[in-house]
Amino acid sequence: MEQREFLKIIQSCRRRMNIAGFLEESVSALSIGAGIGILFQAAAFLTPLYYVNIYIGLTLLLAEMSVLAVMLIRRTTMEQAALVMDGFGFEERIVTAYEHLDQEGTLIELQREDAMKELSAHRNRIQISVLPSWKKIGLCLSLFVLLTGLSFIPSVVKERAAELHNLKEEVKKKEDEIEEMVEALEQLKQEKLTRQQQETLSEMAESLESSLSEYRQAVSQEMLEAASQKLDYKYEIMSDQLSEIMRDIEGGASISLATADALKAMEDKMKELNKMKPSKEDGTGQGQGSSGEGNNGDGSGQGNQDGSGSADDGDGQGDGGNGQGDGNGQDGEGGAENGRGTGSSNTPHDYVSVPNAIADSGNLTGNATNHDTSEYFRAQTGLSWEGTHTSYDAVIGSYEQNAYEGIAAGRYPSGMEEIIKEYFASFD
Question: What are phi and psi of 413, to 5 degrees?
Fold first, then answer.
């Protein structure tokens, strides 16, 4: 019974020694980890490190795991614990008794009995502290306070790191989107299409590959926005091209049902991804069209952006797109006629109405100043400004000239020059 109690006391001291050693080594390791973390935070003020806090967390975790591994390997043995206990005034009685615990003999039994007696009588001498010194704890806490304070200090470099991270996330989404579209186009190219349709799909894929390269090179929000604008424009053009292919199919072209379904799905996907404003041909926004006071059969009218414009003859037939226009004018014989007509997007544009007092201000063209002096009158359907009738080609030419002047002056985002040139080239 005495021997069992003797071993129990040694085991209890050994356990406290292992805990004390682990805590002391942990405080030292965490202090080192906090010091490395401070260096990381300092570096974050000089170079963009978005994941700096994750790096610091991994450093501290690695430090603690290292301590745990070392303590498992170098944990205190029973003999070492007995030797430490002897340091509290037992003059190596305990370690000697432990070493000869399984041996027999008169002297050994007397020595063991004496050691157990002394240990039982003076056990309170053994004081093994579990906590590290307050100096080490204070140093560790100070380093963590400094580390936390640095993490909350804002800086331009940290904002740049967050911006770059968000940029990479957006680029990654766009890359996945474009790669999915390219893969779908490559699959469509395997279908039985005409040579011209195959070439169209190849051009689409090459154009999307070009956009993919632009996204991968984007290092700023401005470059990302420029790439997105170009991609949106490409989606609009590609959607029109796919619609053209679908019209060919509906016209009786020989093609499998699976191919037709795939083309339709691709067209729908393009329209879904197209984030540009509605095109001039199928716009849905409502607006007031500019109209002139007509003579020789020209009438005044108020139109919508979705196709209606000024009426060009007394019977109210509009020359603009898919809307309706109210015509109120005089015919060639002087008889006044009122009419309400419908137009079609397939109707040729004979002219457009241009407001008076055209002004040019920076990137904007139009009646930018002195608009209070513009002459206007109230037509049947609302307010119209008096203007002059100008040919469609003349207006497009004017806009094209202004666009090219803007390119020369550098007024447009980087990378948009070719898009603008392609846009105006499409009117030829």
Answer: -60, 150
